[in-house]
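Many introductory courses stop at the sequence. We go one step further.
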Amino acid sequence: MNRTSSSAKKPATVMVEGQEIKITNPDKPLWPEHGITKSMYLERLAFLSPFLLKHCKDRYLTTIRYPHGYADKSFYQKNCPEPRPDFVHIARSENISYVHLDNLPTLLWLGNLACLEFHASFDRISNPDYPTEWILDLDPSREEEPRIIEAAALVGKLLESLNIESVPKTSGATGVQIIVPVQQKYSFDQLRGLGQFVGDYLSRAYPQLFTVERLTKNRGDLIYVDYLQHYRGKTIAAPYTPRARYGAPVSTPLKWDEVYAGGIKPADFHLLNIADRLQRYGDLIDLVKPQDLGHVLSFINTSK
């Protein structure tokens, strides 16, 4: 980004990919405990953009805005803010005009509006009926869950036993999501059936750890295997989105070796260190080719 006005307190203007973007309150603290101002946040977003844009493009975007920083009031935004620049593209669905996050200027424009979280739809704009991944969301019932990585490891080993390659990803909050890139030929209902099969197995095999109970009040301290979230019209914290929590965590794909070794926490990955990790590993999701799940779906259908 080339700054054309460098006033510390007044609005600044940056030129990005030929587009002029006005940055208001560049010194506003967004994560004050960590010294992350709006201008610093936008720099981090620019670095994350090749990865974050890839996982938001061709999807309907929901953002969460924190005008006064992560610890203050917030609101969800589905409809695109107005007025919008010409470079901000729209995707319409069910009377909602979503932002189509497909370029860096749009990402920085949203960042200037204090969008601290980016949640992407499971259904794609171009082909909404057939997803390109299947996701299991491991959702702790406690704010602090020291067993979450252990739980993710058990899911990984189960999928391995089913000959399914996957990628674990921190939610950026307290949970972990297991991402399985899939060939784009399975319906949401087929994948939901597979998720139920896996969730039921885990809750029977490890009843002290997992549950498929939908009601939070009935889960106790168990980790919810949420297979229902993966459906058309629902969203996920996009890979590489920041999260509006203490520590400025980032939703980060992991290596299975890291998970199996233990000793890591979702909070370990944040805006201040994510650049080093991405420069070292790149996007770990790219390492898994789209999976053919026919063998598992056939087994489920014949065992009913």
